[in-house]
Amino acid sequence: MKKIRLKDVADMLGVSVVTVSNALSGKKGVSDNLRKKIIKTAHELGINCERYSKCNNSSNNVGTETEGLILGVLVSDFYVSIGTSFYWEMYQKITYAATRARCLTSLDIVKEKSGNPKVPNMIKDNSIDGLIILGMLKREFLNEVLNACQCPIVSVDFTIPEKKISAVLSSNYIGMYKATRELIKAGHKRIGFVGTMGFSHNIGERLCGFQKCMIENGLSVPLQWILSDRVGEMETAYVSLPDELPTAFACSSDYAASILYDALERRGLSVPNDISIASYDNYLYNHKLSGKLTTYNVDMEAIAESAIHRIIMELRYPELAGKTEYIDSNVIRRTSIKNIE
Amino acid sequence: MRPKKKNGLKEIAQAAGVSIVSVSNALNGRKGISREKSEKILEIAHSLGYSVNTLSNKASKTKYKFTLWDKEKYWYEIFCKAAGKYNAEILLNDDEDSNGAIIADRLNSSELTALMEKKEIPLVGVMFSDFDVDIDYVVDDGFHDAARAVKLLCDKGCRKVAVAADIEGEDFTYRQGQVTDRILGAYCQLQTIGNELKYIDFSNIVAASDYRQFFHAKKLPDGIICIGSKSEKALFKNFEEKKIRVPEDIRIVGCGMADENFSVPAVVCDKGEVAERAIEVLLHKLKNNAATCGITLIQGRYTALIRESNEIE
C-alpha cells in the first residue's frame, strides 16, 4: 500500500503542502473553514492527525496556556452520596491533576435519583473550557448534555462509542486477565466469575479478560459458575450460589467480591481456606475483605492525569477528539488466594 | 501571578538552597545529582508554580540514546524515524551505554529478567507482553480493534456478523494471543449490540472461528470480520468464485496485525505509532522518574479507501 503523504492531501484540495502542514499542526495562517476541510480530508486518507500535531508542538508548551482554565466535572448522584465512594475519590484525583496543570474544576452533581436532571448552567451558558463526565449518565440526559456542550469533553470510566468523544478508563480486559492469572498461578483450575453480563460495557470487557486467561490455560467455565451480583428489577446486590462451587472466583469488582464473600459466609465457607478470590478495583472499605483482597489496581491518579491532559490537548487541537485511552496498572497481592495442588 | 520565566532556575535554586546547575540537572533528568535531591528540587519547582516541562523544554536537547534489540532489523528504520521526532538516537543491538532499551525480539521471561537486572535502565517491550516481568510494554490493541470492526459492520446494517480467523500454520503459536484478543473483542462487541445476551462457549471460541467454515457454508452471515489478511484474501477469492458480491451480498471488514495489507476496509495497527509511543514511554520514565505504566495499548487505524465498492464510511 502506498504511504499517504501531506502532498496527497494538498493535491486533492488544490492547496500547498505548507498550508496542509500548518492546518494539521495548529499553526496560524489558515482560515478555520479551510483547516476543517484539510483535517477532514487528511483523516479520510488515513493520516494520523494526532501524531502530526504532537510532533510539531514540542516547542510550544501546553502548561503556559492552561492557567486559569475552568473544567466542569459532571457526576450522577447515583455514584456520589455522602461518605466515601469510588467516584468521590476519582473526583479528588481529577481536581488534584487539574491544579497541577493550573486549572480549576467546577463540580456539578446531577440529580438523576430524583428523576428530572437539568443541564447545568455552566454548560448552557458556555462558561467552562472543558467538561469531564465522570461515570455513565442516563442515555437521554447524556445526549442533552452532549448537544448543549460547546467545549471539549472527556468521559472517564465509560465510553460513548457512537460520538467522537475521548475517553479514559482502566484497562478492563488486561486487568481482569492479570487478576485471573493470580488464581491460575496458585494452582486453581475450577474458577468462576462474578459480574452481571450486560450491566455495563466495562463488565463485559472484564469477562472477556477472564475468559482469555481461561482459554490460554485450556480451561472452560460452565455457565452455572458465571454468577450475577445483582437480582431483581431494583438490582439489589446479591449473589446466589450454585450447589456445586469452584475452588476460586474472579470478581468483576471489589464490590462484587464483597457480596460474594457475604454469600459464602452465609453458607459457612471462608476465604481463602475454602474459596479463593481475585478481583478488580483496589477500592474496598468497611468490609471484612478490606485489606485482604488480591485485586487489580485501578490507577485513579494516572486516569485523572490523562483525562486532564486530553482536555487540554483537545482545546488546542479539536480534531484529536475521539480517542480512548486504557490505563494499565498491576495486581495488589494480599491474602484472598490460597495455593492449592 | 506567574513568575517570570527567565528567573525560573534562579528562583528555584534560591528556594531550594542549591546551585542553578543542580536545578537544571534535576529538571532535565541528567546525571550528577542524587535522586533525593532531584525530587526535592522538582517539588519546589512545582510549589513555585513552574511546570517542569516549561523549564526543561529548551534544555531537552540532551540527546537520549536507546538500544533497540531487534535481530531481524524489522523495526530499525521505523524506530530511527520515530526517534528523530524526539531528538533521540537508536543503537542497534548495541551493548554500549544507553539511556533505555527497546525490546522488539521476543525474549523469554528469564532472558528479559536477566536484561532487566543487568542494565538498570528503563526497558520497553514492543508488540509482546510478558506478565511475569514488570517492565513497560507497547502493544497493538487487537481486542478493541476487533470490537470497532464489528461496530462498523453493525452501523452499516449488518445484523448477523461472524468472525473468521486464520488459526492454522506453524506460526500460530506465536500469533495465538493476538488472534484470541481479536476474537474476544469481536464477541464482546457482538454481545453489547446483540439483541439478546446469550452465553457463548468460550473454551471453543478459537476453533469455532476458523475461516474455512465459510467456504462451504449453506447460509452465510451478512457481515464477516476477518482476523488476519490471509483469511480475508481466501474468503474474498472464494466468494468471487461463487459469484457472491462484496459488499452487496456480504460485507467484510478486516482486523489485522501491524502493517498487514487488506483488500477490504480494515482496522490495522500502525507500526510508526507503536514506535513513537514506545519512545514516549521511555522519555516519560527518564524525565519524571516515573513508575512502570504497564501495558500501553495502541488503537488501530481504520483504512476505508482501499476498495471503494466495499467502502463503509
What distinguishing features does this structure have?
heterodimer; A: 341 residues; alpha/beta; 434 Repressor (Amino-terminal Domain); Rossmann fold; 3 domains; six-stranded parallel β-sheet; 11 helices; B: 313 residues; five-stranded mixed β-sheet; 10 helices; 40% helix; 16% strand; elongated; disordered N terminus
Describe the structure.
- The complex is a heterodimer of chains A (341) and B (313).
- Chain A has helices at residues 6-13, 17-24, 32-44, 49-56, 86-100, 121-124, 139-148, 172-185, 201-216, 254-266, 300-316, and strands spanning 70-76, 104-110, 130-134, 153-156, 166-170, 191-194, 226-227, 230-231, 236-237, 248-251, 276-281, 294-297, 324-327, 331-332.
- The longest helix of chain A is centred in the C-terminal third of the chain and has 17 residues, at 300-316.
- Chain A folds into three domains: 6-56, Orthogonal Bundle (434 Repressor (Amino-terminal Domain)); 63-170 and 301-327, Rossmann fold (3-Layer(aba) Sandwich), CATH 3.40.50; 172-298, Rossmann fold, CATH 3.40.50.2300.
- Helix content of chain A is 37%, strand content 17%.
- Chain A is of the alpha/beta class and 341 residues long.
- Chain A is globular and about 75 Å long.
- In chain A, helix 1 (6-13) crosses helix 2 (17-24), helix 1 packs across helix 3 (32-44) and helix 5 (86-100) crosses helix 11.
- Residues 54-64 of chain A have low confidence and may be disordered.
- Chain B is α/β, with parallel strands linked by helices.
- Chain B has helices spanning 8-16, 20-27, 35-47, 52-59, 76-85, 109-118, 142-155, 172-193, 229-241, 271-288; strands at residues 64-69, 88-92, 100-103, 123-126, 136-140, 161-165, 223-227, 251-256, 266-268, 295-298, 301-303.
- Chain B has a six-stranded parallel beta sheet, with helices on one face. In chain B, strands 6-7-8-9-11 form a five-stranded mixed beta sheet.
- In chain B, strand 1 (64-69), helix 5 and strand 2 form a beta-alpha-beta unit.
- The chains are: A alpha/beta (341), B alpha/beta (313).
- Chains A and B meet through helix 4, helix 8, helix 9 and strand 13 of A and helix 4, helix 7, helix 8, helix 10 and strand 10 of B.
